Amino acid sequence: MSRYRGPRFKKIRRLGALPGLTNKSPKAGSDLRNQPRSGKKSGYSIRLEEKQKLRFHYGLTERQLLNYVRIARKVKGPTGPVLLQLLEMRLDNILFRLGMASTIPAARQLVNHRHILVNGRIVDIPSYRCKPRDIITPKDEQKSRTLIQNSLNSSPHEEVPKHLTLQPFQYKGLVKYKGLVNQIIDRKWVSLEIDETIVIEYYSRQTKP
Question: Residue limits of the RNA-binding S4 domain (predicted)?
Fold first, then answer.
C-alpha cells in the first residue's frame, strides 16, 4: 500500500487530530470526527483506527509501519514505546517537532530536495534515524535558509519537546537555526494521542517469530 496522498481533512474527520499530516483544522461548526455509526465498534475496528492514526500521522506506507513494528519487537524493552521512539527519531519527524517544517510531508520534501544537513553532511533520506548529539541545520544556501525561516515564522507549533533544542546562531552576519538532538525521546513527549499497545496487538499475527 502506497503513502497516502488524498484529502487530509477526510482522515482527521475520521481519526481525530493528526498534526503531522496537516496543521489546518476543519471549518468551524464541523465535527473533527464523523458521527459514529450506530452500534458498538468491534475490537478489530478499534485496533485498525489506532494503526491508521499512527500511519497517517507519520506518513508511512503499510509496509514501512509493519517493518518498524518488527524492528521494535526485536529491541529490548516494551514494544509499544520502542515503536514510538523509532518513529519519533526519524529525521522528517525531528524537523517537524523542531518547527523547521509545518508538517511531516513538508519535512520529507525538505529532506528529499537536499536542503538539510546532519552533522554538516547532506542527508536526503527522510527515515534517517537521528541520534543524541546530532546537529541539524539547513544547507548554506539562500533557498534552504528561507524555507526553514518561513516555517519557523508562520507555523503555529507546540513547544519544542525536551529531547530537542532549537538554537539561533550567527553565520556570516546572518541568523541561522540549528536543531540539537539531546537524547532519545521519552514516551511522555510524544505529541500524538495514541494507544500504541493496540497497534502492536493489530500486528501481532504478522510479526510472530
Answer: 89-153
